[in-house]
């Protein structure tokens, strides 16, 4: 009888010698025991923890326990017999789903699947002892899973062909899920001992893969961001968050609705404010629908009652925190912050969902600038896990801590970032988009660029994303920034202030091609609002005419150049952000890009990717591209990148040392 609350192998030991006795021999010893061994599972039994439990003859789980084989999320596969025992116990289809997704199951689902034999609300150990007594003297032959033949689906090849196709599609280049399928296939087609050999072979190939390193780095990176710090010395462990019970959301457009839903679902009392009566009614209906759909999907109680609606900012007078989510217009936001500062009770935190604007300028409109931070959500706000918490120079540690904690309470991963144009995510996006546009001017097509990025692992290429979010969004920003100007000949200016600028997006917008919403953008769609992107001959002619008008000769651009120009420009900006102190470490940037911008998790994040490629190689390529395009500052390697490369390319976990001691020699 054994009591398990095991999270599996210690991931921190993967790079070194694993401590403790080897798992597989222990598993075989338990399974072969002559006396009944009953696993008592409380808390979690994950990875090696569940594999150990599967070697026992019976399993009793507490009703609150969670079980699973999450190795695939670390770039691995269950390496202690999990791929051989689980299909024998619950059948191939169910085992394949759990092993290739790594998802956890509740005790109830584990019982329903046949993973556990009993679920208890009592003490699991007491229940296991009682269970052991009830099976005393019974034969254990039928309880030794490793001795079972694996149930063989009738149409084995068809099952595995279908699963492999689906896994390859959803894996988008990740190798672990595909390898998991191969290991389970061995359970069906080979005797147990051979199947275990095959599992060990496949585990070894994954264990040393770059993708496993990336996923294990990311596992810790996503936890590291909660240990935030700011250049002014505020820290996660010395800043005390203030409790928030009631919050207001100002502006009920798409973002405001999603934020209201997130807050309500997390149990906050919400005052949702929209000054236009008609918009308020529309928002109320939309939010109700979102809450109902989500409650049904999660089987959770409806959270309608948590939201009160109003047309007046005065309704926010007694809240603890306000999230402003009105249209991205600084004058409008400043007016609202002035009013809120006068209306809200002293001590109310005033936050903005702005995606790029100056938090400190907003703070300057209030009587208590120390209570102002940014809470930058990502669309759709009630779905996306990322929250950028933006501190201005005057934001108090308490304000940052409160916003960070609020993000966690509503199920987000909060990342603290400094105040600059675009903060971290959108600031890095700018040079990335810029390179994609320049590549079109030089001869590439949107399809080619998107294909390269999707093969790298992004769910959508940059031009499909642009069509989805709407080309007019960026157009408005560029117009506000004074970038959309014709040159003396009436053609859109391609060089501004000595810097290359591509007006391609502006020209499409001038033709009303905003993307999916208008049925035309970088691609064509079967109707406005259509979702399926099709190559558009009009766009290709448009590019040809544009190049001819500007005397640009199209050249063949290979995939490697597309990838390097887009990703290294983005990475270079990441290093500049670290150098400027806008992000405290590379982990912050990597978590932002994986959770907010679809960077493939199995590549760790842009900064981890640069570490894997080699900083010297990234530097060399940027220098080459900058020589070819001296009017593109985004390709000029930043000094931190140069310093790290010159210092022997230290591993990513040592970069903070260099950043924190700017004059240090590595
Ligand atoms: C042979 C076998 O086939 C193979 C080879 C394996 O077995 S491979 C290993 C398989 N096992 C896993 O994949 C489980 C991974 N862990 C989790 O999924 C979660 O941790 C959790 C169990 C569901 C709890 O979540 P939580 O939200 O309550 O707390 P936390 O913040 O996540 O974790 C709290 C603290 O514990 C640390 N931690 C958790 N699990 C860890 C692990 N397996 N190794 C090392 N550290 C771990 C984590 O980094 C954090 O540290 P710090 O940040 O505080 O310094």
Task: Give an account of the 3D structure.
The chain is α/β, with parallel strands linked by helices and 666 residues long. It folds into 4 domains: 2-208, Alpha-Beta Complex (2-enoyl-CoA Hydratase, Chain A, domain 1); 246-422, NAD(P)-binding Rossmann-like Domain (Rossmann fold, 3-Layer(aba) Sandwich); 444-549, N-(1-d-carboxylethyl)-l-norvaline Dehydrogenase, domain 2; 561-660, N-(1-d-carboxylethyl)-l-norvaline Dehydrogenase, domain 2 (Orthogonal Bundle). The chain has 27 helices and 16 strands. The protein has an 8-stranded mixed beta sheet, with helices on both faces. Helix 11 (254-265) links the parallel strand 7 and strand 8. Helix 4 (92-101) runs antiparallel to helix 8 (176-189). The protein is globular, with a radius of gyration of 28 Å. The two termini are 53 Å apart. The model is unreliable at 1-5 (pLDDT under 50). It binds (2S,3S)-3-hydroxy-2-methylbutanoyl-COA. (2S,3S)-3-hydroxy-2-methylbutanoyl-COA (T1G) binds at residues 7-12, 23, 44, 46-48, 51, 70-71, 74, 76, 78-80, 82, 220, 223. Residues 7-12, 23, 44, 46-48, 51, 70-71, 74, 76, 78-80, 82, 220, 223 line the site of (2S,3S)-3-hydroxy-2-methylbutanoyl-COA (T1G). Residues 422-525, 562-647 form the 3-hydroxyacyl-CoA dehydrogenase C-terminal domain. Monomer. Its EC number is 1.1.1.35, 4.2.1.17, 5.3.3.8.
């Amino acid at each position: 009888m054994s009591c398990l609350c095991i999270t599996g192998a210690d991931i921190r030991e993967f790079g070194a010698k694993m401590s403790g006795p080897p798992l597989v021999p222990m598993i075989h010893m338990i399974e072969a025991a002559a006396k009944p061994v009953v696993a008592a599972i409380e808390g979690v039994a994950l990875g090696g923890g569940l594999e150990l439990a599967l070697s026992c003859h019976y399993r009793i789980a507490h009703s609150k326990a969670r079980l699973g084989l999450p190795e695939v999320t670390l770039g691995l596969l269950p390496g202690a017999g999990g791929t051989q025992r689980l299909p024998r116990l619950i059948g191939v289809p169910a085992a394949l789903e759990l092993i290739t997704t790594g998802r956890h199951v509740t005790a109830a689902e584990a019982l329903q699947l046949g993973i556990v034999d009993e679920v208890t609300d009592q003490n699991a150990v007491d229940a296991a002892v009682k269970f052991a007594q009830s099976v005393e003297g019974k034969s254990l032959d039928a309880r030794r899973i490793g001795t079972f033949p694996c149930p063989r689906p009738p149409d084995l090849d068809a099952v595995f062909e279908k699963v492999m196709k689906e896994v390859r599609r959803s894996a988008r280049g990740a190798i672990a899920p595909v390898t998991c399928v191969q290991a389970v296939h061995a359970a069906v087609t080979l005797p147990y001992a051979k199947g275990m050999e095959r599992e060990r072979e496949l585990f070894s190939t994954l264990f040393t893969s770059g993708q496993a390193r990336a996923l294990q780095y990311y596992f810790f990176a996503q936890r590291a961001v909660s240990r935030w710090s700011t250049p002014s010395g505020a820290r996660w462990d010395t800043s005390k968050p203030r409790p928030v019970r009631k919050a207001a959301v100002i502006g009920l457009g798409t973002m405001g609705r999603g934020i209201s839903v997130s807050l309500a679902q997390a149990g906050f009392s919400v005052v949702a404010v929209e000054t236009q009566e008609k918009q308020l009614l529309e928002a109320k209906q939309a939010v109700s629908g979102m809450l109902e759909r989500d409650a049904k999907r999660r089987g959770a109680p409806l959270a309608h009652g948590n939201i009160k609606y109003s047309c007046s900012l005065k309704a926010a007078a007694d809240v603890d925190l306000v999230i402003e989510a009105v249209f991205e217009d600084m004058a409008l936001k400043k007016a609202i912050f002035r009013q809120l500062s006068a209306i809200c009770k002293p001590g109310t935190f005033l936050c903005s969902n702005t995606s790029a604007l100056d938090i400190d300028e907003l703070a300057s409109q209030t009587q208590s600038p120390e209570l102002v931070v940014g809470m930058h959500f990502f669309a759709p706000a009630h779905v996306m896990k990322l929250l950028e918490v933006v501190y201005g120079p005057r934001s108090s540690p308490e304000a940052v801590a409160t916003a960070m904690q609020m993000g966690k309470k509503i199920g987000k991963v909060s990342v603290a970032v400094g105040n600059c144009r675009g903060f971290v995510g959108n600031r890095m996006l700018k040079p990335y988009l810029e390179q994609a546009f320049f590549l079109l001017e030089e001869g590439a097509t949107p399809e080619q660029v998107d294909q390269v990025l999707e093969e790298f692992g992004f769910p959508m290429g940059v031009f499909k994303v642009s069509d989805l979010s709407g080309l007019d969004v960026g157009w408005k920003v560029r117009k506000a920034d004074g970038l959309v100007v014709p040159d003396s000949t009436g053609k859109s200016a391609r060089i501004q202030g000595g810097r290359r600028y591509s007006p391609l997006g502006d020209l499409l917008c001038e033709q009303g091609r905003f993307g999916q919403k208008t049925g035309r953008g970088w691609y064509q769609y079967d109707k406005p609002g259509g979702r399926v992107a099709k190559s558009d001959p009009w766009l290709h002619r448009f590019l040809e005419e544009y190049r001819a008008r500007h005397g640009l000769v199209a050249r063949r651009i290979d995939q490697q150049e597309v990838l390097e120009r887009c990703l290294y420009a983005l990475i270079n900006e990441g290093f500049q952000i670290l150098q400027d102190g806008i992000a405290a470490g590379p982990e912050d940037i990597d978590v932002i890009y994986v959770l907010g911008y679809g960077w493939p998790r199995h590549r760790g994040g842009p900064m981890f990717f640069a570490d894997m490629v080699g900083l010297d190689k990234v530097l060399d390529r940027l220098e080459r591209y900058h020589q070819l395009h001296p009017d593109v500052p985004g390709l000029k390697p930043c000094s931190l990148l140069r310093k790290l490369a010159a210092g022997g390319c230290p591993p990513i976990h040592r970069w903070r040392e260099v950043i924190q001691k700017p004059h240090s020699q590595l």
